Every structure is written in C-alpha cells, then in structure tokens.
C-alpha cells in the first residue's frame, strides 16, 4: 500500500493539504496512503479535531471553575468529533476524488481483509452455494 517513490509534502504543503488544498501529482502515492492506508481514519479525525481544539483553548483558559469551563467547551467538542468520525469515509472519498484517485480506495483494506477471510472459510468449508 505504501509507495516509497512518492515524496512527502513539506510542512507548508502539509498545512495546505490539511486545510483542503490539492497536492501536486508527484505526491499522489503519499495522498493515497494517507487517505486509504492503515490508520487513515484516525489521521482524518485528528486533522479535523486539531483546529477545533485550538479554537476552544481560550474558552478552557477562562478563569472559572472546571465545570463551567467543561460546559463551555465539551458541547462544542464532542459533537464536532462525533461528526468527524461519522462522516470520515465521506470526507476521505471526497479528498481522494479531489486528488484524482478512485474514491472506492477507502474500502480497499476492509475488502482485502474480507477476501482473506473468505478464502480461509472456503478452504475450511468449501465454496458457498
């Protein structure tokens, strides 16, 4: 899945990529691994959570009791993270299409895992009818 020939983006290019910009065609392999490789879902949720957390830090620093600060920040943070998890595949499909890659790559690892399980099942029990 990883492609060693594809260069990694520099810091500024990576920040632009996180903000939704396209990377050059020379980095297609890196983009593919980033959006469809192992750990892609966790990377996407992390990238979505960081800006929200940065915006909520000032609220967390307000001089108030812990429960007041929690009631100011958690009602924003929890749904934000929830929706970034719920819409993860949608976001990754969009980003793959944005970079000219097949959006179905999002399902590549689960598809490979399922194919291995199916082969194992068929070796043990024979093909299904």
Element string (H = helix, E = strand):
HHHHHH
The major pleated sheet works out as: none
Radius of gyration (Å): 20 Å
Give the overall pLDDT as a whole number.
90
Q: Tell me the span between the first and last alpha carbons.
A: 33 Å
**Helical element count?**
6
Helix content: 55-70%
- Structural class given helices, strands, pairing? mainly alpha
Count of spatially separate domains: 1
Can you tell me the residue ranges where pLDDT is under 50 for at least 5 consecutive residues? none
| SS elements, strand count | 0
- The share of residues in extended strands comes to under 5%
Features:
129 residues; mainly alpha; 6 helices
Task: Explain this structure.
This protein is mainly alpha-helical. The protein has one domain (11-125). Helices cover 68% and strands 0% of the residues. The chain contains six helices and no strands. The protein has helices at 11-18, 28-36, 40-60, 66-86, 88-98, 108-125. Helix 2 crosses helix 3 and helix 3 (40-60) runs antiparallel to helix 4. The two termini are 33 Å apart. The mean pLDDT is 90.
């Amino acid at each position: 899945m990883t492609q060693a020939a594809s260069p990694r983006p520099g810091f500024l290019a990576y920040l632009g990529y996180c903000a939704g910009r396209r990377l050059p065609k020379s980095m297609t392999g890196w983009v593919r691994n980033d959006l469809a490789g192992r750990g892609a879902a966790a990377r996407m949720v992390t990238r979505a959570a960081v800006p929200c957390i940065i915006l909520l830090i000032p609220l967390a620093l307000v001089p108030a009791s812990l429960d007041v600060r929690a009631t100011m920040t958690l009602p924003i943070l929890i749904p934000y993270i929830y929706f970034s998890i719920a819409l993860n595949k949608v976001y990754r499909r969009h980003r793959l299409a944005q970079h000219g890659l097949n959006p179905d790559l999002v399902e590549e690892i689960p598809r490979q895992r399922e194919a291995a399980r199916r082969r194992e099942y068929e070796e043990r029990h024979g093909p299904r009818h």
